[in-house]
Amino acid sequence: MYAGTGLKGSVYRYAFSAVSDEWLLDKQSVPLSGAGLGQSGGQLLTTLTDRVDAGLFTTTGVKNGLSVGVYEPSQTESWSANAGGVASATYAAYRVLDGAIGLQPAGTVTHALSDGDGSLRWRR
Questions:
Q1: C-alpha pair distances (Å), 52 with each of 8, 33, 55, 94
Q2: By the 8 A CB rule, do 101 and 45 touch?
Q3: Which of 100, 49, 107 lies closest to 73 in space, CA to CA?
Q4: How far is CA 45 from the centre of its chain?
Q5: Mean pLDDT of the 80-89 span
Q6: Quick one: angle between helices 79-89 and 41-53, nearest 10?
Q7: Is-above-0.90 flag for pTM?
């Protein structure tokens, strides 16, 4: 949308909104379910995701990781809160991006930073 003229010429204004994949999962209710006993974090997260919204997200990026003695999802919490509980209990981190859910043990991913051009940027 045209907003007027500035010192360097025409100025345009854009308005947009974005919805994250995680927000979509959080809008679903967590069904009442039993506790997971002696399962890996990956198994628990995959089961939780399938119960909330089966088939819409791929869980191929979910690594099994450490096992949890007992984990019972909270029906009053969002998917994110429950997923965060699984990740925390298994010393892992989860990510929801482009229709895919991932869970990796902490420390498996390192990011290289570069300040060679005067800015601190993440290098792929």
A1: 51, 11, 10, 16
A2: yes
A3: 49
A4: 11
A5: 91
A6: 170
A7: no
Token representation of residue 77: 């919490």
Q: Exposed, middle or buried by CB within 10 Å (0-12, 13-18, 19+), for 97?
A: exposed
For residue range 1-41, list pLDDT tens digits in order: 777 888 888 888 777 666 778 888 888 888 777 777 788 89
Half-sphere exposure of 103 (CA within 13 A, CB side): 28
For residue 99 the two structure tokens come to: 């229709």
Strands 100-105 vs 58-62: parallel, antiparallel or unpaired: parallel
CA distance 35 to 111: 35
Q: Could you tell me which of 82, 33, 41 has the C-alpha nearest to residue 63?
A: 41
